[in-house]
User: What shape does this take?
Amino acid sequence: MNDRFSEPKTETDLLKEARRVLQHNLLGAFTKPAPSLYPHQWNWDAGFIALGWAPTNFKQACSEMTALFRGQWSNGMVPQIVFSVKNSGKYFPGYRFWETQGLPGKPRNARTSGLTMPAVHGFVLQRLLEQAPDVREARPFFRRMYDRVLLLHDYLYTLRDPHGEGLAFICHPWESGMDNLPTWETVFETIHFDPEKDVPAYERMDLQHVDAPFRPRKESYDRYIYLVNILRKSHYKKPELWNDYPFKVQEPMFNAILSHSNEAMMELGKWLGKDTGQLREWHEQTNKAINDKLWDEQRGVYVSFDLVQQRQVPVVTAAGLMPLLSGAPDQVRAERLTALLQNPKFSGTAENPAWLCASTALDDPGFDPSRYWRGPVWINMNWMMYHALLRYNQPALAARLRDDSLELVRRHGFWEYYNPWKKQSGGCGTDQFSWTAALVIDWLRQ
Ligand code: 2M8
Assistant: This one.
């Protein structure tokens, strides 16, 4: 926790500081997520970071996307991490641990991990196009990126959706971007492995930068590494690998982001004179499948579906509201979701109020206000939820998400995440966090 700033900040101060954070984390072609904890390029971070550069340095915004897609595999997968050669050895699991080197289909000129992340790229591109200083000059960039993103979506709809349901599965908590949700704990209740025998020796580096109570526990890291080990041992071969693979989850936010990116790509495609029929089909199919398979009527929220156990995972998280982003819920469901956001599960009580929006419901048994993804507020989640609520004509609630986010940053600085309780409020994880800065910039430009 840190309360470095005691003076109230104006929007101009905030903007200046936010730009300074991005500049500080800039590594040339891309911007790292944070000074020490994350010294490489991360997938969805790159998308959010591009939005932060767009108003002042459009070239750098494009460069973030180009650098990330240099890591795209020939099957379309865009990796979770594209490693910086200069920063080798500063993060675990580093490039060597993944054993992706020399694999067929992996790019020759980029070092990558072997997983993917939420496909934010389509909607990021659409927002970049709106800000292009010279649309004609930028056209070749958008044309290239359009093809790349289409290839990524095709990968997700084929290799990650073997039964053509319209829902892509994730094969690792890291793919959700929300690595430490209690949801994964529930999924792992039925995955049995021996940490001594089935997990290779490893040494974490995150705890050199952030205190242990803010980061995942050892049991969670053992699970992460157990899954990576299965993937790397089979050389990331798909789809045969998936037959007995233990972790296959259809997650609502991952699919809502994909679905929303399909819509955004349709707009981009029209502008480029492309046939966008496939994107429309994907968008409609995914929204329908999110409703048919991931809605939990009792809780009034969307939840993950465990494909191995063939059952829903009844854990209430902020990700369960995110189908609002792609327009999936009908009016009745949308009202239940917005009511949930305003009830004690996310808003707290008059005696103990909360900032919006806790990553895990405040009353979930796995909730922890300062541990990574177990409860803290994340600015990228709030930013997506803000846009989702505007889509459903909820300007006041959307404004609350924006105002809470800006207030947290104003009070505490550009942290990775924040304690959701107003009475304990403070920043957690790493400071000088790029997407926090980038999305503050995006909000303040509007
Ligand atoms: C966090 O994840 C990485 C692994 O990918 C880690 O903890 O080492 C997550 O918050 C993820 O969503 C984010 O993209 C990444 C970099 O900011 O950090």
Notes: The chain has 17 helices and ten strands. The two ends are 30 Å apart (CA to CA). Residues 33, 38, 42, 44-45, 80, 174, 177, 179, 206 surround 2M8 (CB under 6 Å).
